Amino acid sequence: MENKIVTRFAPSPTGFLHLGNYRTAIFAYLYAKKNKGDFVLRIEDTDRERSKKEYEENIIESLKWLGLDYDKFYRQSEHVDKHKFYLEKMIKEGNAYISKEEAKDGSGVIKELVRFKNPNIDVTFKDEIKGDVTMNTKDLGDFIIAKNINEPLFHLAVVVDDFEAGITHIIRGEDHVSNTPRQVLIQRAIGAPIPIYAHMPLVLGPDKLKLSKRRGALPLTEYKKQGFLPEAILNGVAFVGWNPGTEKEIFTRKELIDAFDFSRVQKSPAIFSEEKLEWFNKEHMKLLPTDEIKKNILEWMPENMRDNEITQKIIPIIFERIYKWGDVKTVVEEFSYLFGNLKDLSIDLVWKGLNDDPKNFERTSEYLEKILDLLEQTEDWKYESIKNAIWDYAEKEGKGNVLWPMRFALSRIEKSPDPLKLAEILGKSTSLERINSAIRFLKSITKITLNNIDISKNTVNYELNNNTKNTKNTTNDNSSVRSTNTTKGLIYCIKK
Fold first, then answer.
1. Contacts of 227 (CB under 8 A, 6+ apart)
2. Domain 1-70+201-284, CATH homologous superfamily name and number
3. Is 381 exposed, middle or buried (0-12, 13-18, 19+ CB in 10 A)?
4. Mean per-residue pLDDT for 90-97?
5. What is the average pLDDT across 146-171?
6. Strand 96-102 relative to strand 110-116: parallel, antiparallel, unpaired?
7. Angle subtended at Cα 222 by Cα 49 and Cα 243, rounded to the nearest 5 degrees
8. CA-CA distances (angstroms) from residue 270 to 73, 80, 266?
9. Is the dihedral of CA 146, 152, 158, 163 positive or negative?
10. One fold for 1-70+201-284 and 347-444
């Protein structure tokens, strides 16, 4: 009977870990669970100065959120006696020795370091991704394995801990390949079996540099705060450097466990894309029950808007526009016009490209008056009824000419949902009121007198009949000046 497979995730609690770090945990977890093995969490806290409790707690919280349940947990600092035992054993057997050396800080202090006695040989280890790897150890020299008899360093501590925990597969980043020859030498010296390695390709950011906190990589808990789903993070990060060999990309936890295989891990560096991660998240959001989607959107909305009747109507529209729950607030702010927070009306009421001709103000007013008349006669205020009321007219006069001013009248912004949908959401009374306001605005611009036209200077003088004074505007290009709000009214400078 084969030995049980045991993998481990061994982070140092010296800072917040980013998604590239947690990919190691994900791969180790998936491989262990696929093979009915154990997944071990070991906190490597022997760096007493830099190790912090808050970082350890963040690691534990992150793994719990991802659902990476570990079968065993311990801290490296709890095994110092074991480290010391094997250190003394190696010294006694001649595989290590105490070296009295002057401190490099210039203090003149003599330190008793422990160095490994390097046999200067070739070592070979099996790597699930790279195949069999052979490396010569001569250039390593007699390397240090402890600051003193009571303070083992990284290479000794990890070898002893892996041996004592029965770790069979060590899954870690490619940047650890250079550490492996030292660790194989120590394994031989203490009589430990050489585990199977899997050195994964590095994770690079969009700039093609190694993903790191110094270059903006976020802690995993930050994605939780932004409203990502843990199952989406699990799925998306698993695909950074691995694929199942099929077109399928959206996987449940169980499906990932069943599909995972080191043969599908790429050898070249993998690029992490925030945009792709958001795509994974949206696809997983789509799998949620409708009630759960509604519940989450409401929870992420400003509290004073949750019970609003309009809010209930726009939940499907909000969901269409978000990629994570944290987007809800931004999208809701874009819909502030639905809740009465309206911008001033402007000549953007007129269909694009036509607002440089005063005659089109009058035509647009006529279009809106007709829409108003048709909608006033509509009793069943549902989307299809609203569409049936105005669609023939819109097709006759030009959809842009008719539907654009209707949409702008209802929202007063250029980018907003379908005007028919807006009307349904706002309700009949509010919709008619806003269209009426737009008509009154357009009617207020009834007389434009152009005079003193100086083409060379692009100077246009005109006056409005709404008690505004003559205004002179000069531009240095061929574009129309949009609009200016004054205390006496709206003044427009339109190039003829």
1. 296, 300, 324, 325, 326, 327, 328
2. HUPs (3.40.50.620)
3. middle
4. 97
5. 95
6. antiparallel
7. 100
8. 30, 36, 8
9. positive
10. no
H/E stretch holding 52 reads: none
Q: What counts of helices (H) and strands (E) characterise the chain? A: 17, 18
Dihedrals φ, ψ of 241, to 5°?
100, 0
User: How many whole angstroms separate alpha carbon 163 and alpha carbon 470?
Assistant: 89
In whole angstroms, give the CA distance from residue 251 to residue 243. Answer: 11
The per-residue pLDDT for range 290-324, each reduced to its tens digit, is 999 999 999 999 888 888 889 989 999 999 999 99
Residue with tokens 């270059």: 215
Residues 180-206, buried b or exposed e (16+ Cβ, 10 A)?
A: bbbbbbbbbbbebeebbbbbbbbbbbe
Residue range 347-444, CATH number: 1.10.10.350
Taking CB atoms within 8 Å and a gap of at least 24, the contacts of 444-447 are 444/489, 445/358, 445/361, 445/490, 445/492, 446/362
Q: CA 464 → CA 73, 188, 485, distances in Å?
A: 78, 93, 13
- Rounded CA gap, 194 and 215, in Å? 35
The contacts of residue 351 (CB under 8 Å, 6+ apart) are 360, 364, 398, 400, 401, 404, 405
Q: Which residues contact 388 (CB under 8 A, 6 or more apart)?
A: none
Cβ density class 442-453: b for 16+ within 10 Å, e for less: beebeebeeeee
State whether residue 397 is helix, strand or coil: helix
User: Model confidence over 445-481: pLDDT tens digits?
Assistant: 744 423 333 323 333 333 333 333 333 333 333 333 3
Domain boundaries, the chain: 1-70+201-284, 290-339, 347-444, 451-493
- Give the pLDDT confidence of 324-373 residue by residue, as tens digits: 999 999 999 888 899 888 888 888 888 876 666 667 888 899 999 999 99
Q: What does residue 454 show for φ and ψ, rounded to 5 degrees? A: -115, 95
Sequence-ordered strand ranges (E) for 18-168? 38-43, 72-75, 96-102, 110-116, 122-127, 131-136, 144-148, 151-152
9 forms bridges with which residues in the sheet? 41
Q: What share of the chain in percent tops pLDDT 90?
A: 72
User: Would you say 425 and 418 are in contact if contact means Cβ atoms under 8 Å apart?
Assistant: no
Residue 186: enclosing H or E segment and its boundaries? helix 180-190
Which helix (H) or strand (E) segment holds residue 57: the answer is: helix 53-66
Residue 407 has which token pair?
Answer: 């949409």
Question: Bridge partners of 173?
Answer: 200
Tokens of 1: 């009977």
